[in-house]
Amino acid sequence: MLQTIIYEVESKVAYIKLNRPEKLNAFTQQVNKEITMAVKAASRDEAVRAIVITGEGRAFCSGEDLSGVTDEMDHGEVLRKRYTPMLLEIDRCEKPIIAAVNGVAAGAGMSLALAADFRIASEKASFIEAFIHVGLVPDAGNLYHLTRMVGHAKAMELAVFGEKLTAHKAKEIGIVNEVYHAAEWEESVTAYAERLANMPTKAIGLIKRNLKASWNNSYEDFLERDAQAQRIAGQTKDHSEGVAAFLEKRKASFSGS
User: Fold this and answer.
1) What are the residues whose beta carbons fall under 8 Å from the beta carbon of 244, sequence distance 6 or more?
2) pLDDT in tens, 77-103
3) CB-CB contact of 143 with 155 (8 Å)
């Protein structure tokens, strides 16, 4: 039984909602574990074609629950045992993952948002590289993703000064894809997620693979990955449907297979 998150599937979308609003959805060992389990379940569920991670209440996630931190704690082991499995499960998932940032995303909460494929934000949302304020280094894959989004110089500035970014500023520098009015938040999240859930899911998974590979492969090797990915995509039902819809001058109805 889930204790710290809410997991629901509706209209081909799995919604993972962090549910510790009294603690601004701060991470604990149980939260890490349940997010990992939920992402794995959504990845395996053929009825799910998109995943939303969001927060209950006024925060997305405020980072690690500092009430559980002690001087004797080995922060490296905490990352290895709790955060790494969660982040690798997110990274391995071939379905589109949306971080729906409803409020503050601070510290490891910002890392969680950065690990998603898309970030949409309420106008009330904010992003804070809070690590520096407690004498720590951005972790949980934070700088890996951040540098790729905003470049070395801006990532250094955000990490060292730890200043709050508004949702609109985060969009301006390339962290956030879309910002929505608070009054239309729920409807906007649903529409964004369902749009992705009705797209060619296999092709999205291959796009995710190739985008990641583009950072670590030679051009020649990447061209071979292009060929391999397109061979797989070309054998999907969604490719056949897309071609048929184009020729028949109608909107395609993709099945995700």
Assistant:
1) 252
2) 999 999 999 999 999 999 999 999 999
3) yes
